[in-house]
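All the exercises in this workshop are built on plain-text protein records. Sequence and backbone structure share a record, each on its own labelled line. The structure tokens are whole numbers drawn from a learned vocabulary of backbone shapes. The record below serves as our worked example for the rest of this section.
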Amino acid sequence: MGRPKTVDKHNLLHRLIFFIVCMLSVSLANAGDLITQREYLLDTVGDLTIQQVSQRDFEAATPILNKGYSHAAHWLRIKVLPSKEKSVELRIRPTYLDQIILYYPDPENPGAWITRVTGDKYAFDNRDRNAASLGFILPGSEEAKTYYLRLQTSSSALWHVQALPPAEARMRDLRQDIFMMLYLGFMLWITFWAVEDFIKRPDRLTGFFIFYQLVYLSYALAITGHIAPFIPPNAAWLNDEITSFLVLANVFVSIVFYYELFELYSPPKILLRPLIALCVFFPLAVYGLLHGYAMEVLHANAQVVLIAAVLFISLAYTSTKEATPSRMTLKVICSLQTISLVLSMFPLLGWFSASEWNLSATLIHGLISAFLMYFILHRRSTAITQAAKQAIAELQLAEQALVFERQKRDEQSYFMAMITHELKTPLSVIRMSLDAMQVKDPLKKHTDQAVLDVSNIIDSCGQIDKLEGNTIHVSREPCNLDRIIRELCQELGYIDRVHIHAEGTTALTSDYFLLRVVFKNLLENAIRYSPANAMVNVNIMAKGDHEAREISVDVANAVLANNMPDLDQVFDKYYRAPGARRYTGFGLGLYISRSIVSLLGGKLTAHIENGKIIFRACLPI
């Protein structure tokens, strides 16, 4: 038996907590750091030399500097404690900083400076430290040493420098790599789940999420320095360009994904359109990036993220339509997302002081976003699956009902065919017997009418069965309505009671037999329910243009006030007017006539005018 779903959800939460604990354990404050003093100097123009800088006054600096986006150069002066180790490693994070130059006095040449450089614009193979994080390897010293670091970058000037014994530095790098493996494993697990779910139940939102995850994974690898080893040394500058592009692409794809998400909840258009406007920033930003405006583009991109965060929470709280998950769930998720974005972006912009947490803030935000989106998509997938199962169950029930109805219809058709055949034979015998007995009027007249009524009822039942079983075949041939109606009047003995008036052509292409059924019913209905000796008027008229011509046939008869039918029910099966109870019939004639006219592509209507009821049959020519 499968395990309950709640167990899987609890395991997922445990994994998330475990990964966050691993991440936090990667940087435990500054334990083991040999730096005793940090001082900062801002070089606004960026043209100061090391000789000039060494003569300037510095200000006290915090362990983690965040100076926002600027073309200025940032100088850091550090004092490193003596160490018995042969070397000391400067470990610098984050890894996406463009250029860091190290200066320290040359002990063999007084007044000269030893210079080394690193950054994500420089080849990985040429760096001092063979690790994802940036840094330098310094010679060990039995006395405190002072070092200068110059940072110039197109990204945010957020940086953290530590001086560590080699073993401690390697341990921290190992922890960072283990965390990245776990982190990427968790993110890939969510991505693979989304791919599997999309294959089973293709959903537009899940498709966008898969694309978002792939872009974000590439972005995470880039900003943590894990693509640098794969960049050829002669094209080291590509590392910085690729990282900057992925930063922009990650924001763009996130906005597109959230746009698709919010559309499900029908928020105000005035708030949804700005998201589209923010998407326009991406091609402009890529253009600026390719033309040397990386710092300006990345600065604007960070502000776009904050604008998007405000729009996200506004859209969540103004949505009007319920979806899966609920609007309340959406509000909670977007609130968490906004808090995460604010905590991540404000230090990058230099608006708030940074902490150790901010060095991994983008990864933490990605983890939170992926988990929350997984929660949304999992809920949607569950709802879609349940709806699909319900639809399948309903379809199966409908198919069973259809089979039962078909069986019932077949039995009814068989019964009608059998009873029609069995009743017709006795009626024929009765007619022949009456003729042989030479019964005379008025008894013969009444007997013949009774036999005719029973025969008509049998015919009507047979016609109803064929109509409702869709077994009537329409055979089209040239017909003349005037001739058909006159023949019916002659056969039914209505010559003296029916006045026929025809205007224009009365010829059309239709089914001769079905037309006889329609107008036989209309004529019998008109004669039967009109006052004694009252005339029935039939008006045949061709109308319409050459492309859509039709023939209209009006059958009008006077009706007594107490016998006026209800026009809303007059074509219903089994309906009979209040005064019709004394006549034989089942109330099927008009129902059959309207069904046949519709089958022939026409329309049969009824209206009352000047005490007369008029049935109008419009048939295509």
In short: The chain is about 50% helix and 20% strand. The two ends are 69 Å apart (CA to CA). Residues 1-7, 24-30 have pLDDT under 50 and may be disordered. Residues 409 and 415 are 10 Å apart (CA to CA).
